[in-house]
Design goal:
Strand order of the largest sheet: 1-41-40-39-38-36-37-35-34
Strand content: 25-35%
Structural class: alpha+beta
Distance between the termini: 25 Å
Shape: globular
Helix content: 10-25%
Number of strands: 41
């Protein structure tokens, strides 16, 4: 039985480096991956101070800037590519302190606070909360913990440790202490406006309560406890009331697995002192009226004019609404065929600022621009029209300056500012931190591609292609993960997908025609596209969009239909596995990066043999569909070579998925190669590991798809 070599990490790196081409390709992978990546942009509640995190080739540091000049300044001095993430960044309301978490992997599904050690340090770094003066100085560890929330008085910081709430003074005058203990896991800390009380969610599994802590001598007040899951507490400006969302508790008769079902929710308002509550609004009992499942979830805010702001998909798009706190009909603030995300309430509570895939250009549905809307009037304005990408807007505490993250098709994401008004000029910050070797002028502008899936659904994609080359070129379909993501006509605002964008640019520079597909289940094209029938484990309907992408490529005159590859990570790895298993005649080779193999694993018992008399009415059929939706079920028809890549500390897709595929492919005799990244997670916390993975992907496709 023939089997490709399984590469040990260091050996693989050496082989890969030897097989990479020279500068003839135009630029190196290291050059296109040299960009700094900003994240966590925030502003102080008062004044004109902002802060963000820059990841500069694995060296993660906090940068700050202050108006009116907003000159970027590095605040911390971490100089190693050690895989230690900086997250949870916040500024105290007075802007004097920056508070952050160092460690963990906060893009994980499980164990996000656990230490990460891809550098193999003998003594593993802990996940800790740190503080550092905005003016500069040495950072000081506050305590082990996560999710810090500075108090409105700027004296204390509340945080989570072991599922409970702790408190520490920001000036270090006393050690951290456990503030209170309740049953369940505490989350969603919200200080009252005057800082005297703390609202929180006590998650108890099948139900959740919202509580209010006052002090050590006062019993906790529970807000209208019920047989539901209550979430998202938000204080009224005067601190007398709390608005929250009520969702269903776990239980009831099992429902059909293969059908979509309405997920009810409602907005309630409670007296913060007594806990008595009344229902303000109930979502429509329709599929689109279900619990919103895009960025920020409910995006609940208590705005000026005693209005409650929230997100709903009820009209078929993720839109913002507001309703009087005293009751009444909701007002749709953002009508139109686009989505709103990255939503922030202005310091004066009169405006919502957000990013949206809309604008005057028809291509804007595949971009992001910053917009604003008053909380009491459907009068939305797009503040950053054009061909760029703008996301994660935040207003400075004085309300004068709008900060955001900005990119183009060629320039990577950087912080930017502009006056908070229409037709203002955008000023990019820290452009000097983009290395001179970064090949900005050599990058292509991806072209929008629109095609039809076999069932008639419209699918958007982006085509990366350089000019010239042979008459017939090899091609690659790129499949994003999530699946609730959208690839854009420019640098993505997510670190994981900025890496994918850089990789697609690099593959194009090598002579591949690359098509990046926004398949159904993704965001940006409405509720029905994001929540399709018979998708995922219920039938993998989204795979037809990937197959149709390859067929579209095969029809292009410059593409060699016999040399089409496919690759993707996470959910994209899962769909890559389906592509190779079901359609090896169409896909000549593929790279499955931490994808799923057998989707029945860990689920069948609860579905077909639950610990109760009742089970889902379609349990048996659902089990068969779930298996048929798994790459493992199609190994019998899998013949194309594949490279399997996985980090063995993956906290999103278990490493066992790749083990499962390796064993199945071995038994079948399918040619495969492997790359294991020891002690790294789903997100390549160590920069050098991301380089290793990307080099392996490029080398594999060169060997399998390029003509000798």
């Amino acid at each position: 039985m023939k089997k490709n070599i399984t590469y040990i990490l260091l050996v693989y790196c050496m082989l890969t480096f030897r097989t990479m081409p020279s500068q003839a390709q135009g630029f190196t992978l290291e050059a296109v991956k040299s960009y700094p990546f900003p994240s966590g942009l925030i502003a102080a509640a008062h004044g004109a101070r902002i802060a963000w995190v820059f990841d500069e080739q694995g060296q993660r540091n906090i940068y700050v800037a202050e108006g009116p000049a907003f000159l970027p300044r590095r605040l911390t001095n971490y100089t190693q590519d050690d895989g230690q993430e900086i997250s949870g960044l916040s500024l105290s309301p007075d802007g004097q302190w920056a508070v952050y978490v160092r460690g963990g992997d906060h893009g994980s599904i499980w164990n996000e606070s656990d230490a990460v050690n891809p550098s193999f340090a003998p003594l593993v770094s802990r996940t800790q909360i740190w503080r550092i003066p905005f003016a500069g100085g040495e950072p000081v560890a506050i305590a082990e913990g996560d999710n810090p929330v500075p108090s409105p008085n700027s004296r204390d910081v509340a945080f989570m440790k072991g599922g409970q709430v702790w408190l520490a003074p920001l000036d270090g005058s006393a050690p951290a202490r456990n503030l209170f203990r309740v049953r369940g896991e505490v989350r969603a800390l919200e200080w009252s406006p005057d800082g005297s009380r703390l609202a929180f969610v006590a998650d108890r599994g099948e139900h959740a309560f919202i509580g209010v802590f006052t002090d050590e001598k006062t019993p906790i007040t529970w807000l209208a406890p019920s047989f539901h899951k209550d979430v998202s507490p938000r204080w009224s400006p005067d601190g007398s009331e709390i608005v929250f969302v009520r969702t269903q508790g776990t239980g009831g008769a099992p429902k059909s697995y293969l059908e979509n079902h309405h997920k009810p929710w409602a907005i309630w308002v409670a007296d913060a002192a007594t806990g008595k509550a009344t229902q303000l609004w109930k979502a429509p009992a329709t599929l689109a009226g279900s619990v919103p499942n895009t960025q920020g979830g409910f995006n609940l805010h208590w705005a000026a004019g005693d209005r409650i702001v929230f997100m709903s998909h009820q009209d078929g798009w993720p839109h913002l609404y507001s309703i009087p706190a005293a009751g009444g009909a909701p007002l749709l603030l953002t009508p139109g065929a686009f989505m709103a995300e990255h939503i922030r309430l202005s310091p004066d509570r009169k405006w919502l600022v957000f990013s949206a895939n809309t604008g005057p250009d028809k291509l804007d549905i595949d971009r992001r621009h910053v917009a604003r809307v008053p909380v009491d009037k459907a009068s939305m304005e797009v503040l950053t029209p054009g061909s760029g990408i703008e996301a994660f807007p935040v207003l400075t505490g004085d309300g004068a300056t709008l900060a955001m993250l900005s990119a183009t098709a060629q320039r990577p994401l950087l912080p930017a500012i502009m006056p908070f008004k229409m037709q203002a000029k955008l000023q990019v910050l820290a452009a000097d931190l983009v290395p001179a070797a970064f090949p900005q002028n050599k990058l292509v502008t991806p072209k929008q591609v629109i095609y039809k899936a076999p069932d008639g659904l419209t699918i958007h994609a982006q085509l990366f292609e350089t000019k010239g080359g042979p008459a017939k070129k090899p091609a690659i379909v790129y499949v994003h993960g999530g699946p609730s993501r959208q690839m854009l006509l420019g640098w993505n605002y997510s670190d994981y997908y900025a890496n994918a964008y850089a990789m697609n640019q690099y593959l194009a520079s090598l002579g591949f025609v690359v098509l990046s597909v926004n398949y159904r289940l993704g965001i940006g094209y409405g509720y029905d596209f994001h929540n399709p029938e018979k998708a995922g484990m219920a039938g993998a309907a989204e795979y037809q969009d990937i197959k149709a992408a390859a067929k579209w490529l095969a029809e292009q005159p410059q593409v060699d239909a016999a040399r089409i590859g496919v690759y993707g990570g996470s959910y994209g790895g899962y769909l890559t596995g389906l592509a190779l298993g079901r359609d090896s005649k169409l896909f000549a080779a593929g790279v499955d990066i931490h994808g799923m193999s057998d989707r029945t694993e860990g689920r069948i018992r609860s579905l077909v043999s639950p610990d109760r008399f009742e089970r889902a009415p379609d349990a048996d059929q659902a089990a068969k569909v779930m298996w048929a939706s798994s790459p493992a079920s199609s190994v019998a028809t899998w013949t194309s070579p594949v490279l399997l890549i996985h980090g063995d500390d993956d906290r999103n897709v278990s490493f066992s998925n790749s083990i499962d595929l390796v064993n199945r492919l071995e038994d079948k005799g399918v040619p495969y190669e492997t790359l294991v990244i020891v002690d790294d997670t789903h997100h390549w916390m160590k920069y050098s590991n991301a380089i290793t993975v990307n080099k392996a992907v490029a080398d594999f496709f060169k060997r399998k798809l390029m003509k000798k």
